[in-house]
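Weekly modeling sync, notes
Attendees: S.R. (lead), two postdocs, one rotation student

Agenda item 3: backlog of single-chain predictions. S.R. asked that every request posted to the team notebook include the full sequence so nobody has to chase files. The rotation student volunteered to paste the first one in as an example of the format we agreed on. Action items at the bottom.

Example entry:
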Amino acid sequence: MTYDAVLNWMFNQLPVYQNQGKTAYKANLDNILLLSDYLNKPHLNFKSIHVAGTNGKGSTSHMLASVLQESGYKVGLYTSPHLKDFRERVKINGACISEEKVIEFITANKSFFEVNQLSFFEMTVGIAFKYFSDEQVDIAVIEVGLGGRLDATNIITPEVSVITNIGLDHVQFLGDSLEQIAAEKAGIIKPTVPVVIGQTQKETTAVFKKIAKDCNAPIYFADQEQYQDYTSDLKGSYQKHNIKTALKVFDLLQSKQWQISSEVIENGLNNVIKNTGLMGRWQILSHAPFTVCDTAHNEEGLRYTINQIQAINKVNLHIVFGVVEDKDLSKIISLLPRNARYYLCAPSIKRALAVDELQMLFSQFGLQSKSYNSVQEAFNSAKLKASKNDTIYVGGSTFVVAEII
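Predicted structure, as returned to the notebook:
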């Protein structure tokens, strides 16, 4: 099979959450445990850090990987979803897994996948864990796909568990309260393994403390720690929270004899994009007009990015915007600036909210908008109408950003 044929089979034959949503969600770990046994438990052959959370888990994972690389370690990095190429999900020291490795893994195990009806995400976790084992990484940073307790990544016993924060997202799977969602994400807490919580929230603190106590797991709240100011090449204002979370993780790794110096931390945090290839986090695309995209896609994440956009002193604001259909749009739209011109679109996935439905909602909120047939058409229109002293923001969904970078 060619690489394109392999991807076509993975994306179309088996359920893919990013395309289909709820029908692709599996509420148990049976298949990943079955696959792990079939592959001779590759996750037991490398150290790891497990990262969950509603927002910031991708940025935090890349920060951790960058600093560990700067420390001289061979570092695996597993994240999702990808923006441009499936191989972005599986990296070692910033280099994507090769097309040949993907072909080899799927071809060798295709019959097993079909017989056992493994999901796209389960297969992808299998690819990552086998690759990291075969390549003998020193440590792998593993980002949770969805939730925590029942996520396919949740068969590892990491050096440190991380939960960045809790917000109301994916409520159809995880629960409709912060307490319920926290309990699901806290499912990654393992017996005696220290856990870092990125942000203290009154609704979730007791949940985390109880589960950590039940697991005899030391628990730390990163935002309650005092650190010197570190900067990062990830420039979103929200990254200050992720930096603090990463710093607490480094404290704990140092206590476990991992060699990570202050100089290395500084270098790693300021070279995240170079070291890991991360895209789409407050990514500046041009300066005249000032054009930026960000993958924030829920109420909590968008609040930070919208505040940062409004703080930019430019003449007019143009926003290219599209979403997927499982979001609480009334809360999201209420955050959006009233003085902006909106270019509405739908990303090219099955879960996308139809652009006519999106425009209807925008009209109800009194926002000035026009709908377009594609993300690229909306973006091109914004670029044509914006002057060099204006701002263009592209966002609302990871998949909108993916189509323009």
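Discussion: group reviewed the output briefly. The first strand starts at residue 47 and ends at 52.
Action items: rotation student to repeat for the remaining queue; S.R. to check formatting next week.
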